[in-house]
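2024-03-11 09:14:02 INFO worker-7 job=invfold-0412 stage=load source=structure_tokens
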């Protein structure tokens, strides 16, 4: 964690934040206008009871759970997103509590090109051994069954229903 006190690292992350703000301006504007109006983020319309509908419920509830568990990102900023170490496109670890850390938006974006800061934060939390087990779980590319999704939806009930 020493590098977070390194002034050069601070400078790099500041310039990163500046660049990412420029790049993601429309998104940032949309997010801040939503924050002001307390309007829930619009979501894709899916058929109630379908697999996609269950996944929307779980994704929202699971993100609420992770952000409540980790109110701060590993950089020290408040967390606003659920950051996945192994990509969300891997079903086996998409809703794995050990695969996720509450993250700020710049760190979550940066993670796509540099996995090292989150890896260090994860290992500091769960240790090398459990990290290696997590990695093994991520190799399973099987899909979750409908009843597994139902169980997850029950476990991570979102406060705000879609
Ligand atoms: Zn961060």
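2024-03-11 09:14:09 INFO worker-7 stage=emit residues=162
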């Amino acid at each position: 964690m020493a590098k977070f006190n390194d002034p050069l690292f601070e400078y790099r992350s500041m310039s990163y934040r500046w660049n990412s703000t420029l790049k993601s301006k429309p998104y940032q504007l949309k997010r801040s206008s939503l924050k002001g109006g307390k309007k829930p983020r619009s979501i894709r319309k899916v058929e109630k009871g379908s697999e996609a509908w269950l996944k929307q419920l779980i994704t929202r509830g699971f993100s609420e759970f992770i952000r409540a568990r980790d109110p701060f990102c590993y950089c020290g900023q408040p967390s606003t997103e659920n950051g996945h170490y192994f990509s969300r496109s891997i079903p086996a670890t998409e809703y794995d509590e050990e695969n996720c850390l509450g993250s700020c938006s710049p760190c979550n974006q940066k993670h796509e090109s540099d996995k090292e800061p989150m890896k260090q934060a994860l290992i500091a939390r769960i240790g090398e051994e459990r990290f290696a087990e997590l990695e093994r779980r991520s190799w399973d590319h099987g899909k979750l069954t409908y009843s597994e999704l139902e169980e997850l939806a029950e476990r991570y009930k979102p406060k705000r229903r879609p």
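2024-03-11 09:14:09 INFO worker-7 stage=report msg="Residues 55-162 form one domain."
2024-03-11 09:14:10 INFO worker-7 job finished
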